[in-house]
Amino acid sequence: MSISCALNWAQNRLARTNNLSSYEAKFEAEYLLTELLHVNRAHLIARPESTLPEPIKQAYTDAVNQRVMGKPIAYILGYREFWGLKLKTTPDTLIPRPDTETLVNETLKKITPQTQRLIDLGTGTGAIAIALATETENIEILATDLHFATLAIAKHNASEHQASISFIQSDWLQPFKSTQQFDIVVSNPPYIEENDQHLNQGDLRFEPPRALASGHDGLKAITTIIKQCQSRLKKDGWLLLEHGYTQGDQINALLDAHGYRSISTIKDYANLDRVTIGQR
Q1: Which of the four, 176, 183, 195, 203, has the lowest number of CB atoms within 10 Å?
Q2: Which is it for the CA torsion 242, 246, 249, 251, positive or negative?
């Protein structure tokens, strides 16, 4: 099978069964093949008649069939790019998304020469902590997750990128005493309402529910973190939270009610409310 035949087959199959536009189907078909061949898109365009090796043909067929069933591309390939880093990604982890780079950007802005300790709560693949570790020096970075299997993935990713991070299995900040304070606490916690219909659609169907939904209003985990940080943040320390694009006002109100100051909400690449921050 040639490259052009493989792409045409995949594009038609994806468009027909996944209700994708022709552009979306073409993008996914090309992306899967470039990743399996370890080449760029220009290679596909320049060599349309090249014959695919049998192992690649079989792997591509399997990948497209999995995608037709709705499986996220990150889980099919086993990794996802975030902050220019390739991160191992499995069904034990949330899939890193570009929106979360807003959280990394805002955290970097809050780091000063006086910053000593930073913690990432609910680290998942380790995306946030690893991105921060690659951009900073002389800061103790910790990362937590409640689930052992998830932490194992995060540790693997940190090792791959030589990121110095201490990983701890914990429920948010619960095991940390008020004497173990941090300059910065950052988190992308679950924030979808537990009965939200979107949980049964698209990639969300395959991601761990515990990493997506949090209570009837989506604010259970965020409220817990805000309360715990009252005694675990140093004076003038910062809490940075990712959230849904409709939740900015609610989280502003929660931070204000719990004594935080300098509260503000930052928009993501799509100009939607995505990160809210507050200072102790």
Answers
A1: 195
A2: negative
User: Annotated binding residue at 268?
Assistant: no
The encoded tokens of residue 202 equal 């698209």
Give the contacts of 234 (CB within 8 A, at least 6 positions apart).
181, 182, 183, 280
- Same domain for 146 and 272: yes
Contact call for residues 239 and 231 (beta carbons, < 8 A): no
Q: Is 189 annotated as a binding residue?
A: yes
Summarised one tens digit per residue, pLDDT across range 122-181 is: 999 999 999 999 999 999 999 999 999 999 999 999 999 999 999 999 999 999 988 889
Instruction: Tell me if 80 is assigned to some domain.
Output: no
83 lies in a domain? no
200 is in an annotated binding site: no
User: Which neighbouring-strand residues pair with 138?
Assistant: none
* Full-model pTM: 0.94
**DSSP β-ladder status, 233-242 and 182-187:** parallel
Residue 123 is labelled as binding a ligand: yes
Dist CA 107 CA 129 (whole Å): 10
- Torsions phi, psi for 96 (to 5 deg): -60, 140
Q: Is 120 annotated as a binding residue?
A: no
Residue 61 marked as a ligand binder: no
